[in-house]
């Protein structure tokens, strides 16, 4: 037992002096963690004195062929992650080479800076680089989450790993991963060895993220193992969903080696499957034949185009075509419904924001806005709610059909007319009322000669004839001034000379705007009464239609607010964001920090406090080239677990 403890101390601290380690164990009364604390405190004094916090580098390297001792992984469980002992327990992963790197950085700052400048020219535009050559700017403050260095188009790696690392249950699984020696020795396949190596590198990376004294870590060692999994990781932007699929597959296979099962294909006890995978049932009809099948899913894909929010996306994914008993055996050739039969504790949605443009022969990004809630209730998509949901879908269909009819009626009122230009009918009646109420123009004849009244007396009957005919008013109202001008132009010279100049050459010019030329009080009262009554009736019709549409819209919005359908809440845990176009861009993540009760933004080496408002602006889409690409929800039970353990 003593030798085993010594070996573990060597592994943890990097100290090879057995006598020194034995003395530390004796001073700690055989308590491994007390000994680790004693040794690491001693080691930490030097770098603490010179405040050197060097940039993570190659020494934070391979963990292949070694595993973290069980006692240390226990110290890094969520309950202990903020304790100084847990941090110190993994501080030696940065020692003694880490401290040597710190001293080198302190002694040769100019050399490090020139190397940094040399590498800067190789950086891609998707990278965020904010490293400051000042050593103190690299030092971690308290237990604030650490960032992750972008080593060349690897922002996708950081976004996914950070969202997984902040799941205490997943973090616990990774840090506690171990394989019996006989399993390690019997694993001969290249794939198996690679998966184990990757798990061990991830374990080491997670330990550093908990225990490092720096603001960010270097994931190079873990990334090296992923290089071969992608076609050209250095040259092209990696797809988050592709990477996450690959990552979960590797981790699933690695955990499968640690699970004792009778059948190699039995993954029911695999912790990765239990945490991230669920099942759904598909029922449908095809060419008159019914079918039913159960499938497993890890990340559920959702189309974005044509939908306003996440629930609409899910509804569109769950129902395709028409499917009911009345039509299944008749004209409908295809239709299906999907129902979740088992939801995983961590539910991930892939938002399909890329589509292939056939004419251009290249992919394009979909920038349309898509809203998603902080809490989503999954009851309406569960098989156990099938009967109730089908009834509600029928009611929803009926309400939408009724609303479509009402909206068509309302449109006839709001876009009235037979020509290309349409206007709201209440406004048109109001305009006519205003026209009728305008004071008629008065043309005053001269008292010096009776001849001046001749053209006016000749013109007046023609205008009265026009006004007396309802259709004539509409068809020839614009010719009144032309008629008067025509009479004046064709009068005799004597008549012209005897007509005095008037302030306005025509009735239309006698007022500031259009007004009736001739209208009696009786006509004015009759028209005003009719127009006002019609306008009031039409406005009431419009109000009734709008109120009916609003009531139906509210019924549709509240259709699934039934308390019976709010029993399975999922809380938003992380949002992976992509900014750019289909072939290039940058990824970062928003992750909810339960202990701090706030959203944090993980952008490569930078981890900053954020807000739901900022998340909305960056993630919903529609405003600029940034939008959510992947949503990670956790069940309410997991959410409470996270809150309780930090």
Characterize this entry briefly.
By secondary structure, the protein is of the alpha+beta class. It contains 25 helices and 16 strands.
Provide structural commentary.
- By secondary structure, the chain is α+β, with helices and mostly antiparallel strands.
- Among the domains are: 1-39, Ubiquitin-associated (UBA) domain (Helicase, Ruva Protein, domain 3); 144-323 and 331-382 and 568-645, Cathepsin B, Chain A (Alpha-Beta Complex), CATH 3.90.70; 399-437 and 520-558.
- It contains 25 helices and 16 strands.
- The strands form four sheets. Strands 5, 8, 11, 12, 13, 14, 15 and 16 form an eight-stranded mixed sheet that branches. The protein has a four-stranded antiparallel sheet with strand order 4-3-7-6.
- Helix 1 (2-13) runs parallel beside helix 3 (32-50) and helix 18 runs antiparallel to helix 23 (521-557).
- It is elongated.
- The chain starts with a helix and ends with a helix.
- The model is unreliable at 42-67, 69-133, 231-238, 325-329 and 443-505 (pLDDT under 50).
Primary descriptors:
four-stranded antiparallel β-sheet; eight-stranded mixed β-sheet; 646 residues; Cathepsin B, Chain A; 15% strand; Helicase, Ruva Protein, domain 3
């Amino acid at each position: 037992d003593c030798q085993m403890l010594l070996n573990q101390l060597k592994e943890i601290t990097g100290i090879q002096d057995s006598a020194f380690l034995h003395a530390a164990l004796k001073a700690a009364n055989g308590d491994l963690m007390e000994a680790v604390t004693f040794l690491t405190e001693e080691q930490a004094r030097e770098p603490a004195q010179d405040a050197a916090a060097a940039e993570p580098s190659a020494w934070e390297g391979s963990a292949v062929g070694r595993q973290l001792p069980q006692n240390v992984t226990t110290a890094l469980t969520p309950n202990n992650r903020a304790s100084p002992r847990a941090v110190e327990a993994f501080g030696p992963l940065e020692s003694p080479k880490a401290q040597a790197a710190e001293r080198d950085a302190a002694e040769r700052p100019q050399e490090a800076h020139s190397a940094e400048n040399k590498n800067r020219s190789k950086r891609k535009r998707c990278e965020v680089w904010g490293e400051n050559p000042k050593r103190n700017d690299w030092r971690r403050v308290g237990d604030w989450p650490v960032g992750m260095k972008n080593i060349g188009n690897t922002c996708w790696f950081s976004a996914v790993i950070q969202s997984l690392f902040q799941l205490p249950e997943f973090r616990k699984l990774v840090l506690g991963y171990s394989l019996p020696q006989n399993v390690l020795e019997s694993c001969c396949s290249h794939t198996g060895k690679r998966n184990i190596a990757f798990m061990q590198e991830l374990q080491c990376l997670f330990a550093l993220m908990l225990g490092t004294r720096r603001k960010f870590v270097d994931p190079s060692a873990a990334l090296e193992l992923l290089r071969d999994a992608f076609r050209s990781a250095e040259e092209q932007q990696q797809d988050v969903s592709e990477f996450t699929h690959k990552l979960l597959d590797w981790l699933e296979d690695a955990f499968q080696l640690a699970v004792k099962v009778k059948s190699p294909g039995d993954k029911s006890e695999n912790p990765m499957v239990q945490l991230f995978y669920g099942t759904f049932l598909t029922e449908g009809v095809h060419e008159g034949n019914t079918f039913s099948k159960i499938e497993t899913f890890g990340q559920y894909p959702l189309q974005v185009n044509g939908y306003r929010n996440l629930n609409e996306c899910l509804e569109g994914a769950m129902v395709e075509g028409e499917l009911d008993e009345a039509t299944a055996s008749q004209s409908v050739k295809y239709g299906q419904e999907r129902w979740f039969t088992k939801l995983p504790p961590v539910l991930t949605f892939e938002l399909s924001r890329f589509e292939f443009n056939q004419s251009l022969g290249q992919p394009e990004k979909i920038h349309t806005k898509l809203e998603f809630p902080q809490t989503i209730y999954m009851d309406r998509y569960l098989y156990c709610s099938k009967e109730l949901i089908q009834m509600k879908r029928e009611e929803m269909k009926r309400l939408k059909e009724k609303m479509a009819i009402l909206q068509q009626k309302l449109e006839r009122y709001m876009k009235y007319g037979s020509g290309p230009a349409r206007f709201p009918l209440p406004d048109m009646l109001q305009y006519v009322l205003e026209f009728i109420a305008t004071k008629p123009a008065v043309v005053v004849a001269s008292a010096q000669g009776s001849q001046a009244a001749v053209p006016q007396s000749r013109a007046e009957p023609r205008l009265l004839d026009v006004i007396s005919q309802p259709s004539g008013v509409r068809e020839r109202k614009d010719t009144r001034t032309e008629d008067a001008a025509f009479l004046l132009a064709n009068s005799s010279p004597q008549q012209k000379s005897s007509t005095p100049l008037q302030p306005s050459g025509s009735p239309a010019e006698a007022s500031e705007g259009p007004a009736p030329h001739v209208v009696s009080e009786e006509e004015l009262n009759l028209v005003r009464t009719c127009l006002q009554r019609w306008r009031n009736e039409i406005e009431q019709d419009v109000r009734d239609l709008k109120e009916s549409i609003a009531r139906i819209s509210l019924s549709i919005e509240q259709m699934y607010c039934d308390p019976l359908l709010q029993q399975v809440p999922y809380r938003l845990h992380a949002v992976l964001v992509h900014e750019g176009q289909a072939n290039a861009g940058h990824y970062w993540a928003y992750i909810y920090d339960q202990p701090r009760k706030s959203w944090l933004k993980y952008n490569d080496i930078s981890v900053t406090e954020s807000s739901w408002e900022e998340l909305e602006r960056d993630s919903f889409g529609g405003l600029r080239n940034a939008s959510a690409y992947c949503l990670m929800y956790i069940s309410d039970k997991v959410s409470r677990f996270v809150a309780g353990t930090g």
